[in-house]
Amino acid sequence: MNSKKNLIKKIKHKKAVVGIIGLGYVGLPLALECCKKGFKTIGFDIDKNKIEKINLGISYIKQVKNINIPKKKKLYATGNFSIIKNCDLIILCVPTPLSKNLKPDLSYLKKTIKSISPFINSKKLISLESTSYPGTTYEELVSKFKLKFNIGKNLFICYSPEREDPGNKQYKTIDVPKVISGHTKNCLEVGKVFYSSIFKKLEPVSSTSTAEFTKLLENIYRAVNIGLVNEMKIIADLMKLDIYEIIKAASTKPFGFKAFYPGPGTGGHCIPIDPFYMSWKAKKLGYDSRFIKSSGIINTKMSTWIVNKVVKVLKIKKVDLVKSKILILGIAYKKNVDDIRESPAFPIIQKLQMKKIKISYHDPYVPELYKSRHYNFKLKSIKLSKKNMKKFSAVIIVTDHDNIKYSLIEKNSKIIFDCRGRLLPKNNYSKSKIYTV
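RE: above sequence
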């Protein structure tokens, strides 16, 4: 029996072992779905804390309940990459962030491939799910493994971008159509057999680069529209107009308009990053994607605009910046989740601290801030109370979690800067205490 038929048979009979590399917001939910569908699943990560918690049945992601984590016999986590040799299906869910100069950082992917390469043998499927620029699958996987294997004959390589949306109660992971591609027709065929056993609907495309482009288009669409409405917010502010009233009125048009809402910038792994991935790739091809790049820049600079407005209002209110204390309300990048990846709260905090302003924060989902790739804050979430609120010169609503008592905030805060339109704004600088930023 040839390699393709043998692997497909193992998948169909649930005899294939799945290895998920990267047990974060994408990898862990996917691993659990594989377990639910009857696959023996091994999770790989370099974070010893995650490994220990998974093997104890403890979740470190709010959306993944402890009771949903299977016991060791179904999901086992390890940092020993040599065990990859026991896996038939290898799914890469590793971070693909930006470097400090806003260029693609594939170091995590490169290190992962280097770690598993000695243990890759024939009759395996390798599928990349990490978001990256078109051409990544070929450059980082195919070009390396084709030196040892006949891709499509005895090793199969796919790209199938993740479509996770933490906190979305309407769509579960398996409900979202799964875009799937393969380096060859055989690769695609094997990939379709595996992913159709997990997801309800597949969307096959003609090449891995097409799938990579599709993922970027989805997120850049959102980034561009968020960038547009953020710029409109700045212009509306200069005109002393309420951007939320304007959006509400525009939304009554039954065609040609979809409402996007302004905020403190974008967060999560994809939307703040993908415009720069695509613009970098386009530049390599000799094209300056100014429109795409501009949306990324606008969203990135929102933190500066917010801090400048906060400082402006505090000066108007005759608040001494050096003696001031500001409470950041919400650290997660979106409401009702514990995901802090690329959160716009971080550059806001950093810029305020650079002005010698003392910072505290409250987030019911983020009890403590730890060192990240770009920031090193040592802060713990404080309790919201009438007594605590009176200690602060101002409050900045960065993330509007639903389980926060906004009546307590509004009643006991001296000044409120609302980045999410949660409270009714009144932009009279001399009389109001609520400002849209």
